[in-house]
Design brief:
This protein is mainly α. It has helices spanning about 5-25, 40-60, 75-100, 100-115, 120-140, and strands spanning about 1-5, 70. A two-stranded antiparallel sheet has the order 1-2. It is flat.
Amino acid sequence: MKVQDVLVGLFFIVIGVLMIEYAADLKPPRHLKFGPGFFPLLIGSGLILVGGLIALLGLRTLRTEPLWHRPEWSRTRQGWVRFCSIPAAVALYVLIVDAAGFLLTAVLVMVLVLAVSGEPLRRSVPAGAVTAVVLTAIFASVLHVPLPWGPLQNISGWLLW
């Protein structure tokens, strides 16, 4: 569904106001001028600014476009399958990452999303594997994010430095 930009802008403004209101309740420690509410305050302010710009730009087409309409992809079954593959991939990741580990789960999710998008398996399997290995190396070694390894615990040292 395509929603008119004025409505999208107003949505982001409301989210920004709610985030700033939440950030105001996060009190800083005694010895600092800013604390845990500083970053949400910046994000909320940015959302209000961007939402306002989107809404203002949407005013130009308010009289010529409907408030919402269905895009072409939503008229086909294949379009809905592709659209639903992303939330399904996120749900699959959340459900199996602890048991299977990040590396195997990332490969599986990437391959499934690419296959649903129409990529042949001969290209989606290597692309998913390379992407998962690179992401694992970045998150585990560079950013020091503790990733679940699942059954690959024995080889976890190969991707860490």
